[in-house]
Amino acid sequence: MEKDQDMSVNNQFGIHYFLDTLHYRQEDLKIWLPVLKDLRIGWIVLRSEKNRAIPEDFLKLLLKEGITPIIEFNLPLRSNIGTRDLKILLQVYAKWGVKYCVFFDRPNQKDSWSDNNWAQNDLVDRFLDQYIPLAKFALDEGLLPVFPPLEPGGNYWDTAFLRSCIKSLVRREQNQILENLVLSAYAYTHHHDLNWGKGGPEIWPQSKPYITPQGSQDQKGFRIFDWYEAISHALLQKEVPIILFASGLVNNPFQTKTTNEEIKKNWFNQKLISLLLHTQQSIDVENEVSLDPLPPTVLACNFWLLASEKGQPEAQHAWYVETNHQNPFIKEMIETLKQEQKQVQTAFEKQKKSRRSDPKQCLIKHYVLLPDQEYGISDWDFDQIKPLINKSRVTVGFSIDEAILSKKVTLLSDQNYYSNETIRILKKFDCKIEQLQKDGTSIAT
């Protein structure tokens, strides 16, 4: 069964958390959750061990604040992966509300494999032999197994590897995986401008695997998603969502030593991309070049890296070293976002108050606000609201914009369904909030 993948306009702004798995304590969350909220982060990439879960409270607080975690396992590519503990972890993560997980990293790269495994034939099929069982188990648990990011270019050219993988999944009739396919990519710039390769193979048909003629452009740039989406659309005749990792870095931060000039370029690229994500409008840069917003098929654009301990190799790329700003751009961005949010909120409140004062628009007396969850509402939840529907003419829906026009709003019994922001907005517009109890009664909150 195909799971709903919402590719409408959303908060695409994401970031990689710490590179290690040691910063999942409550005291860490107290430090970093306010930072994530100030940056208006919508997605966060979290490293997970295969036999120990990220704490439930850590994940649930992120989800409650509207931040979607992407669990990254980085499993070794070998034939015998112990899956018992991993399967238990997947069940637990799904139960806690996690949706996205990534099992492997750069399967098209030689150093991701042992020498013996890399040298054997049928690399794509041997990779899929490991990927498919895990992907199917994840789907059965309600998770979406993100197809792993490939090394752009790479030892086995990434676009050729991706094309072969999708063809093989079609040949093997892996319909469940194909129906729920989510791609991912490393959106390095490779020293190109942010528009390099824009339009994909339709605009640059001369470029082929391993060959980029002079005057042509290829997928090795920030617009790598144009090329991956062209491949998936050609083979599957549908749009496939994609998640970007390490967006705007000049190159792979682990493969080469980054110079001071490259670090400055990384910050500049990330600043431009963050403007695109937050404004959702085209922006003009030097030399009369215009950068367009990312398409809705890009679910998340994740920057590298939120934070690092002092002295670690990755610290030069971190937005924060320990708890200090690494670059003035971060502080400037937070201040800009706060100011922008105030302006938007002021306009929003004026509009809504105007609508509530207009009796022609404020026709809702009692609204039951359902949680906007991917799988809808359960039969048990629906049974809760049946008495209200039968007893009085309530309006039932998922829209906070409709709910704030009502004098009274009823919520389902599990308050974890609703974010703090939702409750705050309802209170701001003087809605009388009631919460259903498990016995069907309601109490004021």
Number of distinct helices = 13
Provide the structure class. Answer: alpha/beta
Overall mean confidence score, pLDDT = 87
Strands of the widest sheet, in order across it, are 5-4-3-2-1-10-7-6
Q: How helix-rich are the residues, as a percent range? A: 25-40%
- Provide the low-confidence segments as ranges: none
Give the biggest beta sheet.
8 strands, parallel
**Which term fits the overall shape?**
globular
- Estimate what percentage of residues fall within beta strands: 5-15%
CATH class of the largest domain: Alpha Beta
The count of strands amounts to 18
From the 3D coordinates, which CATH architecture of the largest domain would you assign? Alpha-Beta Barrel
**Spatial separation of the terminal alpha carbons:** 38 Å
Query: For the CA atoms, what is the radius of gyration?
Result: 23 Å
What is the domain total for the residues? Answer: 2
CATH topology of the largest domain: TIM Barrel
Description:
The chain is 37% helix and 15% strand. α6 (158-171) packs parallel to α8. The protein has two domains: 13-326, TIM Barrel (Alpha-Beta Barrel); 366-444, no CATH class. The strands form four sheets. An eight-stranded parallel sheet has the order 5-4-3-2-1-10-7-6. It has helices spanning 26-38, 56-64, 84-95, 115-119, 123-140, 158-171, 175-179, 224-236, 260-279, 328-357, 379-391, 400-403, 420-428, and strands at 13-16, 43-47, 68-72, 100-102, 144-146, 183-186, 242-245, 283-285, 289-291, 298-303, 307-308, 320-321, 324-325, 366-369, 395-397, 408-411, 432-436, 442-444. The chain is globular and about 70 Å long. The protein is of the alpha/beta class.
